[in-house]
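DM from R.C. (forwarded with permission)

"hey, sorry to bug you on a friday — could you get me a structure for this? deadline for the figure draft is monday and I only need the backbone to look sensible"
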Amino acid sequence: MAKVKHNNFLDTVDEVITNATNAGVIHLQATGDALNGRYITINGKPSYHFGTTGYLGLEQDRRLKNAAKEAIEKYGTQFPLSKTYISHPLYAPLEEKIFEMYGHPILITKNSTLGHLAVIPTAVRYGDAVILDHQVHWSVQSATEVLKSKGITVRMIRHSNMDMLEHAIKALQNKARKIWYMADGVYSMYGDFSPLQDLMELSKKYPQLHLYIDDVHGMSWKGPYGTGYVMSVLKELPQNILLFGTLSKTFGASGAVLVCPDKKLHQKIKNFGGPLTFSAQLEPASVAAATASANIHLSPEIYALQSELEQKINYFNHLVALTDLPLVHKNSSPVFYIGTGRPATGYNFVKKMIDAGFFVNLGLFPAVPVKNTGVRITISRHNKLKDIKVLVDAMIHHFPIAMTDTHTDLSKIHKSFGMPQPKEHHTLATPFEELQLEYTESIQQINKTEWDTCFSGKGTFDWDGLAFLEKVFTNNQLQEHNWGFHYITIKDQDAKIILAAPLTSALLKNDMLSEVNTSKAIEELRIEDPYYMTDVALSLGSVFSEGAHLFLNDAHPKHLQATGLFLEKLEEIKTRVGAQLIILRDFEKTNTLNTFLHEQGFIAIALPDACELTNIHWKSEEQYLNILSKRSRKHFRKEIKVFENYFTLSIIKDPSPSEIDQFYRLFQQVWRHNLGINTFMFPKKLFVEMGKHQNWEFLVLTLNANLEPSANVIGVMFCTHSGHTYIPSLVGMDYDQNKKFNTYRQLLYQTIKRANELNCTKVDLGFSASFEKRKLGAKLIPKVAYIQADDNFSLEALDWLRKN
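My reply, with the result:
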C-alpha cells in the first residue's frame, strides 16, 4: 500500500485565519474602561456595535448586574464542588424558574459545549445512529466524536437537505434502534432556520427519528417566555426531541439548559452525564444573573423586549430592501449576512467599515465556504434606529468601493451564492481588455508546437499525452471513465502566451487524498451506493497526470490579470459542466500565487510530496551509488541489488491481448491496496491504448524459472516519456510475491536504469511511496492544491471521518 502524506484540515483552517488576521479584520481587541452594548472601542476608536449575540441586550441590564454583585458578596466568586454532591443555594430557584418557562424537565450546564459533551454520549446509546447537519455547531460535532469509539454510526448530510436526510434514514432504519438528527434551530452565520415542520413530518414517517436541536441563537428573542425559535414553531415538545437553549448570549448570563421531555432519559443524563458529574458548577454570580433574567422571561416584559427587537429587525430589512446590497438570506432573525464572495472583497469591505466606525463580523472559511465570504451583521436592542440607518448608509457607500478595489461586481457575488441575478447592475470594466483568451475542448484544435513549448518534458500533458488521454477517456460505458477536456491559453497583444492550462471535468471521489482509514469507511458505504461522496470536479490536469499543469509567465507584467481572466473562465466552465468544485493542482508550496488565489476564493491544501530524480547521467552502477547517501547505498545493496538476479526484465512495446489481461490484473491488485490515493479504477481500455501507442512501454519483471517454474510476471511498470522526462505513470504487482522479493523496489530501480539508458534528464516518479523513492535518490518537492467548492460539506465530512 502506497504511503502518502495527507492534508490536515486544521492546517488549511490555520492558513485562512492567519490571512484574515494579517488583513486586520479578525482577532481584534476591544479597549476602553466600559462597555454599554451600543458602542465598542477598536483601535482607540468608538464604533457602533453590530456584532453582538446578546440580541435583547440583557447582559447590560441593571437587574442582572446587581444580582451578580450581590451573589458574589454573599456566596463568593465560585462554589468549587461538583453539583452531583451538592449545589449552592442559588441553583434550585433558578432550576424552578427555567422549568416553569419550558414546562419540561431541564438540566443546567456550565455552557453549551460542556452540555453537549455531557448529554450526547449519555443519550445516544449502543445500537443508535447519528446524522449531523454539516452546519450544526462545532460543539455538537465535537461531542459526537466519542460515539465512534462505541461503534455508533455517525454520518453527515448537506445543510438542511431533507432529501439527503431521508436517504440516510432509509439506509439506517434496519440497522439502528434510534436515529438522531442533530441540527441548529437558528444557524449563526446566515440566520436561517432549521426546517422544523419538515423534520416533524419525517419523524412521523420514521418513528426511529429523534431530534437533537441546538437553539442557542434562537433563545430569548423568540418563543413563549423567550424559550426560543424551536418552541415558537412547535409550541409543545414531543418526546423524541432534546433541545438545548442558552443562559448566555441573549439570555444575558452564563450557562446552558437542556430540555428533555423524556423523564427517564432526563434522569439518566442527570445521574451520569460526564461534565455534569465531574465538573464544577456555575458560579453564584452567573446563577444569580440567570435568575434575574428568568424573572424577566417569565413576565410580560419579555414580549415587549421581543417586540422592540422585532421592530429594529424589520427596520433593517426595510432599509436593505431599498438597496442592492446582496443580502444572502432574507429572514426575521437578528442575524444577517451580506455576501462578498471573494475573501479579498470581504477583507476590504470589513476594513472599510471598521475604519468608518462600525464593528461587523467577517464570515469566512470554515464557517462558510471560502467563496461565500461575507459580512455577518447582528441587530440588538442596543442599536438605535438611527444607528441602523447610518450603518446601512455606510454599507451603501463602502460596498461598491470594495467591489471596485477587488475587481468584482454584484453579478459575480450573486452567482457565487446561487442568488438570482440582480435586476440592474453595472458590470465593472475588467483589466482584461488587452488579453486574448482562447478556449477549446480538444487538443486537436491547438497547435502542437505552440502547446509543447509550454508543456514538453513536464508530464503526461504534452500534446501527444493529451491526445492519448482524450482517446482513452471518452465514449466509455461508466460515467467516471468519461472526462470533459478543456484547454485554455491566454495571450497578450503580441500573441505571446502568458498562461496555458489543460483541465478535465470528471467524477472524483471526495476522499481521493484522504487517510486510508477514512477511505476504508467510505468504501464500505459505497458497497450499496457506488457514487457515495463523489462529485464532478473541474481540475487542472487529471487524476492520471502529475506535474506543473499551469504554465504561467510570471515575469510578464500582466500575469496576474491573465490569472484572473483564467479563473473567470473556470467559473464559467464549472457552471456549464455542473461541477461542484474547482481544483488547481500541483503547485510548489512556495509559489507566488498563494495570496492571490486565496483572495479569489481558493483554499490551499497540502498534497503528497512530488518525487523527482534529475541526476541520472551515470555510466555505471558505481557512479549511480555515488549520488546516494551512505545509508541509501546500504539499503540498495541489501534490499534491491541482492534481488536483481532473481528477475528477468523485459521491455515490451507491443503487448499481446493476453499480456494486457495479465498486466491489468496486476494493476488491479495495486489499485485495491492503494486507498491512500483513492481513485476510480481505470478502464482496461487505458492499457490497451498504451500498448498501441509509440510513447508507451511496459517494464516487465518475471521471476526466473529456478524460483518460479511457471515464470509468471510479478510486476510491471507502465512508462511513457515527455521530451527528456521519463514517467512511470502506473504500476502493477503480485502483492504476495512483492513481500518475498521486494518487487516494487526492483521496479523503481529498473525504471531509473531505463531512463538512464534512454538519455533522459529527469524521472518523474509521482507522489506516492516517497520514502522508498527518496532512498533511490529522488528529491521530494512539497506540493499544494487550491480548491474552491460550492460548500464545505465534503471537506468537513472527510475531516470528521478522519478524526473518527
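R.C.: lifesaver. The radius of gyration is 31 Å.
me: no worries. The chain has a mean pLDDT of 90.
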